[in-house]
Amino acid sequence: MTQETSFKGDLVRQLAEILNDTHLTEIEYEVEGCRVRVARQVQVAATVAAAPQHAMPMAHSAPAPEAPQAAPAAPQDPAHDPDAVKSPMVGTAYMSPTPGSAAFVKEGDTVTEGQTLLIIEAMKVMNQIKSPRAGVVKKIFVKDTDPIEYGQPLILVAS
Q1: Nearest CA to 138 among 93, 89, 75, 91?
Q2: Of 46, 74, 102, which one is at a domain's C-terminal end?
Q3: Mean pLDDT by 10-residue block, N- to C-terminus, for the chain (159 residues)?
Q4: pLDDT at residue 8 in the model
């Protein structure tokens, strides 16, 4: 890069403060070709160590022929589902236009392309997340005021 960029310590501090306030693990900000990413490690080792570890032995105790038969009926990971609408940013999800009002959508609703599904607040800006296609809302993965990560599946809209 030939363009010189000046380091903005205040920006990093502001981004770190947003991480603390929203309990997110990372945030990325880009302006005029200068990208700043701030991340922190979450201390969940105690929680993971305290969690029961029975899932693995139970999964291995199932007969092998049954697993392939059950796989098509098992729900697909929403992060890899092509019908999942994913978050384009880090922020806070709001399911309705104002507190106490009806949600933009609920499971089972039919939506049109471009219809607002929810709002993500990022850095005090309310960003409408619109449906990329017409279809039916099959599943909503987030709740009102949930912290949202970049790329996180938000809503499943099947066409």
Answers
A1: 75
A2: 74
A3: 56 77 75 74 46 42 48 61 92 94 95 95 93 95 95 93
A4: 66
**Same domain for 5 and 61?**
yes
Give Cα 81 to chain centroid, integer Å.
13
109 contacts 101 by C-beta, under 8 angstroms:
no
Looking at the structure, do residues 42 and 6 belong to the same domain, yes or no?
yes
Which of 7, 29, 8, 41 shows the shortest CA–CA distance to 123? 29
What is the reported pLDDT for 26? Answer: 76
Domain co-membership, 92 together with 125: yes
Tens-digit pLDDT profile for residues 56-73: 444 444 444 444 454 444
DSSP state letter for 114: T
Beta strands in 50-124 (DSSP E): 84-86, 91-94, 110-111, 116-122
Query: Domain ends where: 47, 74, 101?
Result: 74
